[in-house]
Write a structure and sequence with these properties.
There is one protein chain. The protein has 107 residues and is mostly helical. The protein has 2 domains: 1-63, Winged helix-like DNA-binding domain superfamily/Winged helix DNA-binding domain (Arc Repressor Mutant, subunit A); 65-107. The chain contains 4 helices and no strands. The longest helix is centred in the C-terminal third of the chain and has 40 residues, at 66-105. It is rod-shaped, with a radius of gyration of 26 Å. It starts with 8 loop residues before the first helix and ends with a helix. Pfam families: HTH_Tnp_1.
Length: 107
C-alpha cells in the first residue's frame, strides 16, 4: 500500500535547500541527509530522492527532468488513446464494408 504525498512542495524545497546549504558541514551528502531528514520528519531515503530529483531537474545530474517525464507520460497517454480510436475505426470500417457486401449480394 503506497502512502500519499504528505509533504508539501514548500517543505520539500526547504529540506533540499537545507541539505545543499549545509553540505560543507558534513563529510558526505548522505551524512547531511541523515542529519536533516529527522528535522523535516521524513526518512533519509525520501530526502535523498528529493535531492536527486532537484539535482536532475537543475542539470547537475544526468537523467530525465520532471518536465521531460511529464511530457513523455502525456505523449504515451495520447498514443494509447489514438491506438484505441484507430482500432474502433478499423472495426467499424470492416463492419460497414461487410454490411455493404451483404446488401449488394441480396436479390
Amino acid at each position: 500500500m503506497k502512502k500519499s504525498n504528505s509533504y508539501s512542495p514548500e517543505v520539500r524545497e526547504r529540506a533540499v535547500r537545507m541539505v545543499l546549504e549545509n553540505l560543507k558541514d558534513y563529510p558526505s551528502e548522505w551524512a547531511a541527509i541523515e542529519s536533516i531528514a529527522p528535522k523535516i520528519g521524513c526518512v533519509p531515503q525520501t530526502l535523498h530522492g528529493w535531492v536527486r530529483k532537484h539535482q536532475t531537474d537543475n542539470g547537475q545530474r544526468p537523467g530525465q527532468t520532471t518536465e521531460e517525464r511529464d511530457r513523455i507520460k502525456a505523449l504515451e497517454r495520447e498514443n494509447r488513446e489514438l491506438r484505441k480510436a484507430n482500432e474502433i475505426l478499423r472495426l467499424a470500417s470492416a463492419y460497414f464494408a461487410q454490411a455493404e457486401l451483404d446488401r449488394r449480394n441480396k436479390p
